[in-house]
Write a structure and sequence with these properties.
3-stranded antiparallel β-sheet; mainly alpha; 3 strands; 3 helices; about 50% helix
């Protein structure tokens, strides 16, 4: 007789923050393979956020990246409209990638805020505080 566990497997490894030739990419550039974005960490070093490892990153890091990507999206849309009015053809892959990345980050932040609200509503945070005191 075997017993099956339905507990989720937790990945406790730190995120992979490196990418070959990372210094050649400008900040907040979205890269397709592997899918991620180049950003500055707290100590002003270039790092690479892989969207498949987005659950390893803190909300503060994701919010900073989100704000910068939103700014880049506005700039890209402005360039697209300017070149479009001048009858030049422009590839709007950059806009598509920015929207996809922003959507991924937005979904993760919403998921975490929903979990926090649930914890507060059912009182899990109070139970954790009692356990930590004991």
């Amino acid at each position: 007789m075997t017993v099956e566990s339905f507990q989720p497997v937790v990945n406790i490894l730190s995120p992979n923050r490196s990418l070959p030739d990372l210094d050649y990419y400008p900040l907040f550039t979205i890269i397709q393979d592997p899918y991620g974005v180049v950003y500055n960490n707290g100590s002003s070093q270039k790092c690479f956020l892989r969207f498949e490892e987005i659950s390893h990153y803190s909300d503060a890091t994701l919010k900073v990246i989100k704000l910068q990507l939103e700014q880049r999206l506005k700039e890209a849309q402005k360039r697209f409209l300017e070149t479009r009015s001048n009858a030049f053809l422009i590839d709007n892959d950059e806009i598509r990638l920015l929207k996809k990345a922003l959507n991924t980050i937005h979904e993760r932040l919403n998921f975490r805020s929903t979990l926090r609200r649930l914890e507060v509503s059912i009182g899990l945070n109070r139970l954790r505080q009692r356990e930590e005191r004991q």
